Amino acid sequence: MPYDPSALAIAKHLESLDVVRFVAYPGLESHPHHEVAVSQLARPDSGFGGVLSFGLDTNHDGHNRFVSKLNVITSAVSLGHDESLIVFLGEDDERQYLYPPEFHRGFFRLAVGLEDTDDLIRDIDHALVEAGFEV
Question: Tell me, what DSSP letter sits at residue 98?
Fold first, then answer.
């Protein structure tokens, strides 16, 4: 397979967790624009990209606790690297009006890097538990 399926695996894992409010990734069949994304792919095996968004069912402090407990994924102010990077956009961000309503309580953008998929999923689960959430 010519693309890294890590982002899709992580999106599916996040979607399975009760603490996750939403996952926005066009590779998920539950995404409202999944069929459009599939129809626009040059090849069926080309993947859906390495960036996804998700929000936790918590407040601003809960989002910050989660990101502070990550060990493999690095908190960053921008995305674009060979390592996995995460950016938190809080509910007070001036760009909130650009996003659908489910984003308005704060959300993360996660750019999936070259790390092992299982290591990234374990890092997310560990951070959630350490931040006080049930996984």
Answer: G
